[in-house]
Amino acid sequence: MSDLTxxxxxxxxxxxxxxxxxEDEIVEVAFAHLREVHPDMxxxxxxxxxxxxxxxxxxx
Length: 60
Ligand SMILES: [Zn+2]
Fold this sequence. Notes:
Blueprint: E1 6-11, E2 17-20, H1 23-37, H2 39-42, H3 47-53, E3 55-58
Antiparallel strand pairs: 1-2, 1-3
Bound molecules: zinc ion.
């Protein structure tokens, strides 16, 4: 399995688009964003929620 040609994109409701090159990275980026911008929401999300909302797209 290779993630080299894909990335993960997550559109936060606040309008920020988050991207990561792997599942681990998008989870990390999403939690960093939540903790910084939406600290009240950070505790409500888990890894599975982030991955459920993230879209896996072909990188261009
Ligand atoms: Zn946000």
